[in-house]
Amino acid sequence: xxxxxxxxxxAGSGKTTLVKTYSEWLRRTLFMHVAIVNLxxxxxxxxxxxxxxxxxxxxxxxxMRKYRLGPNGAFLKASEMLISKIxxxxxxxxxxxxxxxxxxxxxxxxxxxxxxxRPVSTVFFKILTKISNPVVVFVIDASAxxxxxxxxxxxxxxxxxxxxxxxxxVPVINKIDIAGSNELARLIVEExxxxxxxxxxxxxxxxxxxxxxxxxxxxxxxxxxxxxxMVSAKKTNTMEDLHYxxxxxxxxxxxxx
Length: 257
Ligand code: GDP
Ligand code: MG
What we know:
- The protein is of the alpha/beta class.
- It contains eleven helices and seven strands.
- The chain has a single domain, classed as 3-Layer(aba) Sandwich (Rossmann fold), CATH 3.40.50.
- α1 crosses α11, α3 runs parallel beside α5 and α8 packs across α9.
- 45% of the residues are buried.
- The structure holds guanosine-5'-diphosphate and magnesium ion.
């Protein structure tokens, strides 16, 4: 049974770059057979070679032109189009015979709200969970974290993804090559309780000091057995940590309470 890993996260968090670097590492270091699937119709250029590419069926540009839509409307249209093709997708390689692969990496649309927070994700994961135990990796951009509320809200977006999908979601903090000294990002990984503690002292920002500790406490309850890892999609040597987390999540999927 291959490990199917789905990369989700806000636009620009590094999903596509991670898929590239992780797949190269898996092939080179563990000699794995890795299949890549691209579900982003909006991407212009891919840094990896996908086994299936949604752009064989439609691209964001074509949809914008054909239906006279802006990019957001076109993303929504694309998500509806994927629903109508969902059975074809699962008849296509690599899904038609997943046993041929050690790992299948799935890259998702840049704008996560056009995929995760639309009906298409329910349809997609319903079928995916029938054929495997998918591991969902939620990518957080460390360089986007400037304030305590940035850290907590990005982390919580991963919790919401878990709530939407009903699957275990493992958070991964990316771009540590440019934001490695980001203390708030480090706290998410190493001392999340401290974020709640800090939030309580936000006396000048009333509502924030009430809401943020609550968010942290919910996030802590749902984090399962995993500790997020910090990686850089530009540094191959951080892929081992990512793989350890993905592997651990795969092995314990289903028996988390
Ligand atoms: P996606 O929208 O989530 O697929 O994000 P991309 O993989 O396309 O990355 C968005 C931008 O961030 C690109 O310019 C990448 O080169 C850059 N990027 C992604 N990961 C990293 C990283 O770990 N470090 C740095 N410095 N840049 C990164
Ligand atoms: Mg992408």
